[in-house]
Amino acid sequence: MDGTLAIIGTGRLGEALLRGLLSSGWITPSQVVATARREERCAELADAHGVKATTDNRAAIEVADVVLLALKPQAMLGVVGAVADAFHPEQTVISVAAGTPTSALQDATPEGIPIVRVMTNTPVQVDEAMSVVSGGTHAGERDLALAEEIFSHVGRVVRMPEEHLDSVTALSGSGPAYFFLLAEAMIDAGILLGLPRDVSSELIIQTMVGSAKMLRDTGRHPVELREMVTSPGGTTIAAIRQLEASRVRAAFLDAIEAAKLRGEQLARGE
Ligand SMILES: NC(=O)C1=CN([C@@H]2O[C@H](COP(=O)(O)OP(=O)(O)OC[C@H]3O[C@@H](n4cnc5c(N)ncnc54)[C@H](OP(=O)(O)O)[C@@H]3O)[C@@H](O)[C@H]2O)C=CC1
Ligand SMILES: O=C(O)[C@@H]1CCC=N1
């Protein structure tokens, strides 16, 4: 792209995105200003990526054509409000914070700033993110298309109305954590059965990758794919019986609903 990208709050997610955008060639280090709260973090970012890094959010926002807000939800409105006059309507502002609605960011900034909200996930680190883009009041087609372009460099992107973003956060935003927990539990099961940890890890990771590829690439329904594995009177149905007895399906429904409710609490500043 032409112009400057400011990343405000360059933590785990901001840095993963920065890495993906630099490696895709969409942006060069000289076009990026990254901010963090601590000087040591700034030095780390500058060393690792060759970008300008500063604790001065105002200076970073003033020079930017695109501002990416990657602060924690709890810090977002305070930090943005403190430098509100640095924003200008020619910029596109993109927030990746869970919970925080564009209306709250709109209220914290001057009138007319185009604000786009994106919910992405940590697979940005391997260019396999799932990102969902939605626009605030002043975000036009140009702003939404720009956000889609940015996140398409690190995975897949879809556009949805903002009313669905807390549900999206609960599903795909937090989703990697559920799969990692599942992997951890299955690796432990291998240990229980007497396999060495490295062997159990390799078996489970490759099984997860293979299963994910089948889901994505065959386009077949998960039920159909599961039935392919489940032989009559066999081993898989014995395991599934136990999973159903442990209410694993209900546990997922409850857990993901709890994540959505937490997003709604964050939006209320709780
Ligand atoms: N992690 C995830 O899976 C996902 C996270 N998100 C969202 O991304 C956002 C960031 O999350 P994550 O990267 O995990 O959080 P981190 O805590 O890793 O990153 C937050 C960053 O903000 C910096 N920061 C704090 N205060 C200021 C300030 N006043 N000025 C400048 N920088 C500041 C911190 O700097 P310092 O290090 O110096 O303290 C830190 O680098 C959150 O809003 C979260 O909801 C969205 C999707 C997925
Ligand atoms: O746990 C969180 O709040 C963030 C948002 C989605 C994933 N991590």
UniProtKB/TrEMBL annotation:
Entry keyword annotation includes DNA damage: no
Residues engaged in binding NADPH: 57
Keywords annotated in UniProt: Amino-acid biosynthesis, Cytoplasm, NADP, Oxidoreductase, Proline biosynthesis
Keyword Ribonucleoprotein attached: no
Major site of localization recorded for this protein: cytoplasm
Subcellular location per the Swiss-Prot or TrEMBL entry: Cytoplasm
Top-rank EC class of the record's enzyme: oxidoreductase
Coiled coil: none
Pathway the protein takes part in: Amino-acid biosynthesis; L-proline biosynthesis; L-proline from L-glutamate 5-semialdehyde: step 1/1
Pfam family, one: F420_oxidored
Pyrroline-5-carboxylate reductase catalytic N-terminal domain segment(s): 5-99
The protein's Enzyme Commission number: 1.5.1.2
Domain of life of the native organism: Bacteria
This protein's GO CC annotations: cytoplasm
Stated family: Belongs to the pyrroline-5-carboxylate reductase family.
The protein, known as: Pyrroline-5-carboxylate reductase
Taxonomic source organism: Egicoccus halophilus
